[in-house]
Design goal:
Layout lengths: L1 H5 L1 H51 L1 H18 L7 H19 L2 E7 L3 E3 L2 E13 H13 L5 E9 L4 H5 L4 E13 L2
Antiparallel strand pairs: 1-3, 2-3, 3-5, 4-5
Length: 188
């Protein structure tokens, strides 16, 4: 103790030499504990995902069977990837025109719209303008609903036709309709 009182400068240096490594060691220990807490939180966040994946691995055969069943059902509803989008669009336009004409509608205009790419599918759309009576429109829509591959009506606008004197004598209502029909093609 006498030496510490007699040499205060050396005492501070010795004390500093002992305290600085202890502070560095304490800083490193706190940093490691903090990192451990972060890793533990990350593990806890990933555990439910890992459990779900483990469950999928345990049921892999069932999942593959269900996926193949869904895959074959979907393939009946869309055009295959092997078909050319241009030929699909032309075929779609021809078929929709035939359906509308067979129902009794008079087609005044039809056009193929540009192909739009979506997640895994190409959207092929055709826009048609037709005129006819309401029962014919109803019949055409019912036929479009039963068409395979699946046709989606993207938009439809219906408005009454101007009636001439001769049409005013008839009881049937004639309408003009603009119809945009969409079909999907699987993208390779």
């Amino acid at each position: 103790m006498n030496w510490l009182r007699g040499n205060p400068r050396y005492a501070v240096m010795v004390l500093g030499t002992l305290v600085v490594p202890l502070l560095v060691l304490l800083y490193l220990a706190v940093g490691l504990l903090d990192m451990r807490g972060d890793y533990q939180a990350e593990i806890e966040r990933l555990e439910p995902r890992i459990a779900r994946l483990q469950g999928l691995l345990n049921r892999e055969a069932d999942v593959r069977l269900a996926a193949s069943a869904v895959g074959s059902d979907v393939l009946d509803l869309v055009y295959p990837a092997t078909d050319d989008p241009g030929s699909v669009a032309a075929n779609l336009q021809k078929n929709v025109r035939e359906i509308l004409a067979a129902a009794g509608l008079v087609i005044s205009n039809s056009q193929i719209l540009p192909v739009r790419e979506q997640e895994g599918f190409d959207s092929i759309a055709v826009k048609l303008t037709a005129a006819g009576d309401l029962p014919a429109l109803d019949s055409a829509l019912a036929e479009l609903n039963s068409y395979l591959p699946l046709l989606l009506i993207e938009s439809i606008e219906i408005w009454p036709s101007r009636a001439s004197r001769r049409q005013q004598e008839e009881e049937t209502q004639t309408v003009n309709v603009t119809l945009q029909v969409l079909a999907l093609r699987v993208r390779a």
